[in-house]
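One chain given next:
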Amino acid sequence: MNVMRIINVCGVLMLSACSTVMDKNVEWEYVQPEHYPVLNAVGYAPISAQMGSSDAVKTLLAIKASKLDAYRELTEQVYGQRIEGSQELSNLVLSDEELKSSIQGVIRGAEVVKAYAADDDTYVTELRLDMQKVYDLYLSTARPKRIKKVNYY
């Protein structure tokens, strides 16, 4: 009976060893999403609060700040927002509470739709991110694939 087990184990090992020797050819096909959303974001910045020596410098700084704010909003839409919170109790009384938020990501392909002064003291920048354009940019660096067909020899 022990001899039969050894023969069976040897047979299984030989068969499994043959399966790794087989060669195969894998055909891939590229995956394309069914639809592409268009994301919009608006950024605001106060002109008078900017640190500049003249009104023109303050306006230029507000333009940059409103654009960065709009990019922050786009990044939040694409990647989400990380929230960290903590509370500290002392004698069953809340003594300290902290909440932190962070956003991190890379936005490629966004375009400025409008940039304008909304009133005397606020600058506004509107951005649009067409995910079709983002997908095309992504394909230029890394092409997503899925298995189309596998042929064993």
Notes: The chain has one domain: 2-152. Residues 2-152 form one domain. The chain has a mean pLDDT of 86. Residues 55-79 form the longest helix (25 residues).
